[in-house]
Specification:
heterodimer; B: mainly alpha; 15 helices
């Protein structure tokens, strides 16, 4: 009997705790929904893309003339395209290209921009001038035009797409690095290191680099969706990685002529790409805000 | 004045660098023009003959300066495919691209102005949040995705507007404008966000100024304060951006022109890319780059003339 009362009391207390925890949780994560939901979507997309060969999907390039342009249903969850290929499978395989480029291109661009920016900001003088003019020149041609030129000259291999897209991220990365380097190069700890006889290379690598890398990482989160969109544009024009491994932009383009009878061919990849880019933007925004908070509190 | 000279010097250097860059990219890197013309079955002798006839056997720098001279005197070479002079080809299509940009930017401004003002006026509150969310979603949609959705909705489902096509102005104003609406809207739906955010940010700080408090103390209505007192000083940066976007979009319209079948410079370029017509590619890229650099320069100058503070701080920056 006493036991039952005790259990009852504990249950009540638990319920109270639960409610309190739930309110606290809701308050803490009110903004968090816009972080965790997109993160979950990204995790899903990345997981599916990584595991694509093991999911038992129809081959993304298996042509089936008997089943062209079938709408979404039980046989093909997201329907088939103009050649009877499974849309779901093509989207998941396409994600591999879109995501690979999305991560590789900014990484390449930021690495190169870091080198240029850190040298310009640290050594200043004529080197700074030359790098400044080179960047102005680079910025004087619209990005898509540069991409077009490179795809004509170097063809559309995955590596080339990543590198030429990466080049587009150099200017902004270089500018951010340069500004940050200028700021840190005159700080006491750098002066002290120099006073202790540290070489330029050591100062750059051990004193300045650790201080400027974090803003750049936050910056990269913003660049990933931009790279995915740019690759999508290139692929839409048929100038990215060659079919049958079409990425999302290519899938959207393929259904363009058939919007009337089979809108799902274009619209589903459009939705997937939109959700992915939106998710990257939301997550990037949240992380950047968090990083900014940390840096402000540190100062 | 010294600021002007500095900017002009910089302009010349960047223009030289840009033209050299496009020239080298098309001329020195793999994918020799002569091989492209001769085709895959050509003997080394025919390739050499073509190289000679095009003058490709001479030093690169000599060719660059000759080509640059041609650019300055209006001789931009001839298309490898159609033999059409490149300068004429670009000039025939430029007005179309420019019209598209003007309509697109007008639409973007029509979205950005009211929404930016409301956002700033109600900063941090519900209308601001709703508009901010809309902007966030807009930024996550590239123009070519908007184009697909707009075609699907307005051309195929509602059948209000044509999906593709272009009519010259001689066919009448509405006939000319009608097929421009969807392509321009595809751009506007992306571009309005950055204009709106800029206007909002600047207006929020202007609304803190003393003279706004004074206007309020005089008993002026909110609408009057926002439109007559706060809007003009708040729209400086937005106007600059508007100019920069025009410059960028002159060449950036490639996909939209391609989707909607609009015969602009972007479509000329992408056609040349598909046909590997290097002379046209080179001409288009040069044109786009020069237009972009010039627009940026003019916007910069206009800005510094309108706002002396920029001139001073610009000079201080060196």
């Amino acid at each position: 009997m006493a036991n039952a009362v005790l259990t009852e009391a504990r249950r009540e207390a638990d319920a109270g705790d639960d409610a309190a925890a739930r309110t606290a949780h809701r308050n803490r994560t009110r903004l968090g929904m816009l972080f965790w939901l997109p993160l979950a979507w990204l995790a899903l997309v990345i997981l599916l893309a990584a595991l694509a060969p093991f999911l038992g999907l129809a081959a993304p390039d298996a042509i089936d003339w008997a089943n062209i342009k079938t709408p979404p249903g039980t046989e093909h969850w997201l329907g088939t395209d103009v050649l009877g290929r499974d849309v779901l499978s093509r989207i998941i395989y396409g994600a591999r290209v879109s995501l690979a480029v999305g991560f590789a291109a900014p990484a390449i661009g930021i690495a190169a921009g870091l080198m240029l920016g850190i040298s310009a900001g640290y050594y200043k003088g004529w080197l700074d001038d030359i790098i400044g003019i080179a960047i102005d020149t680079w910025l004087a041609v619209p990005g898509l035009v540069i991409l077009l030129l490179f795809s004509v000259i170097f063809g559309g291999s995955l590596l080339m797409v990543c590198v030429s897209l990466g080049l587009l991220f150099i200017p902004s990365a270089a500018r951010i690095t340069r500004a940050a380097t200028l700021n840190f190069a005159t700080r006491e700890f750098v002066v002290a290191a120099r006073g202790m006889g540290a070489s330029d290379a050591r100062i750059l690598a051990r004193e300045i680099f650790p201080n400027i890398i974090w803003p750049l990482v936050a910056f990269m989160l913003v660049d990933v969706p931009i790279a995915i969109v740019a690759e999508g544009a290139l692929s839409f024009l048929g100038l990215s990685v060659k079919s049958p491994t079409a990425s999302w932009g290519g899938l959207i383009a393929e259904g363009r002529e058939h919007l009337q009878q089979a809108p799902h061919i274009s619209l589903i990849p459009t939705l997937v790409m939109f959700l992915t880019v939106l998710s990257f933007n939301l997550v990037g925004d949240a992380v950047r805000r968090r990083l900014a908070d940390v840096r402000e509190s540190a100062i | 004045m010294r600021y002007l000279v500095r900017r002009a010097q910089r302009l010349v250097i960047v223009l030289l660098a840009v033209t050299l860059f496009t020239f080298l990219l098309v001329n020195v890197l793999p994918g020799d023009v002569a091989y492209e013309i001769a085709g895959t079955e050509a003997t080394p002798e025919t390739v050499a003959a073509i190289r000679k006839s095009l003058g490709l056997d001479r030093p690169v720098l000599v060719r660059y300066f000759e080509w640059l001279g041609g650019i300055l005197t209006g001789d931009w070479g001839k298309s490898l495919k159609s033999s059409e002079p490149v300068w004429q080809a670009i000039m025939a299509r430029f007005p179309v691209s420019f019209e598209l940009m003007l309509i697109a930017q007008t639409m973007a401004l029509m979205l950005a102005l009211p929404l930016g003002i409301i956002s700033a006026y109600r900063a941090g509150r519900r209308p601001d949040k709703v508009i901010g969310t809309l902007a966030f979603m807009s930024v996550s949609m590239p123009a070519f995705m908007f184009a697909i959705l707009l075609i699907f909705l307005f051309a195929l489902k509602l059948e209000w507007l044509p999906a593709t096509g272009y009519e010259p102005l001689s066919k009448g104003l509405w006939a000319n404008l009608k097929p421009m609406i969807l392509p321009a809207l595809s751009f506007a739906l992306v571009e309005w966000t950055i204009l709106m955010r800029t206007l909002r940010a600047e207006m929020i700080s202007v609304l803190q100024e003393d003279y706004i408090s004074l206007a309020r103390a005089k008993g002026l209505g909110d609408g009057r304060i926002l439109l007559a007192h706060a809007l003009r000083p708040s729209s400086f940066s937005m106007m600059t951006l508007l100019g920069l976007q025009v410059g960028r979009l002159i060449g950036g319209a490639i996909i939209i022109e391609e989707i909607f079948g609009i015969p602009g410079v972007g479509r000329l370029l992408i056609g040349a890319v598909y046909g590997r017509d290097f002379v046209v590619i080179q001409g288009c890229v040069t044109f786009i780059a020069i237009a972009f650099v010039l627009v940026n320069f003019l916007v910069d100058i206009a800005y510094s003339l309108l706002d002396p503070r920029v001139r001073v701080s610009g000079a201080a920056h060196g």
